């Protein structure tokens, strides 16, 4: 099995390909790699980029959801207190008491 290329080298090749108008085959030839290798690197990079844009870090969506659920529970408790207070006050001012 061939030795893997360093991460910096892969990032440079991807950046050169995206910044230039050259074909995938030409960029791959210039760097001494196969076009299929470059295509695989691009696919992996796109997959990693889409993950980073959908979430700002591991578990951030679940953290945000957890915080939202805490906030909802607090608001529901406050709403219940206000509902009970309104019911109590409305009965206290009924005529005949």
Structure description:
The chain is 76% helix and 0% strand. It is mainly α and 97 residues long. Helix 2 (24-31) crosses helix 3 (35-54). The protein is rod-shaped.
Give the count of structural domains. Answer: 2
> Gap between N and C termini, in Å?
92 Å
The ordered string of helix (H) and strand (E) elements is HHHH
> Beta-sheet strand percentage?
under 5%
What is the number of beta strands? 0
Low-confidence regions: none
**Global morphology:** rod-shaped
C-alpha Rg (nearest Å): 30 Å
* Count of separate DSSP helical elements: 4
> For the residues shown, what is the average pLDDT?
86
Major sheet: none
CATH architecture label name of the largest domain: Orthogonal Bundle
CATH superfamily membership of the largest domain: Winged helix-like DNA-binding domain superfamily/Winged helix DNA-binding domain
By CATH reckoning, the class of the largest domain would read Mainly Alpha
Q: Level of helix content?
A: over 70%
Q: What would the CATH topology of the largest domain be?
A: Arc Repressor Mutant, subunit A
Structural class: mainly alpha
Keywords:
Arc Repressor Mutant, subunit A, single chain, 97 residues, 2 domains
Structure in a nutshell:
The protein has 97 residues and is mainly α. The chain is built from four helices and no strands.
Write the layout of secondary structure elements.
Elements: H1 7-19, H2 24-31, H3 35-54, H4 60-92
Helix pairs in contact: 2-3
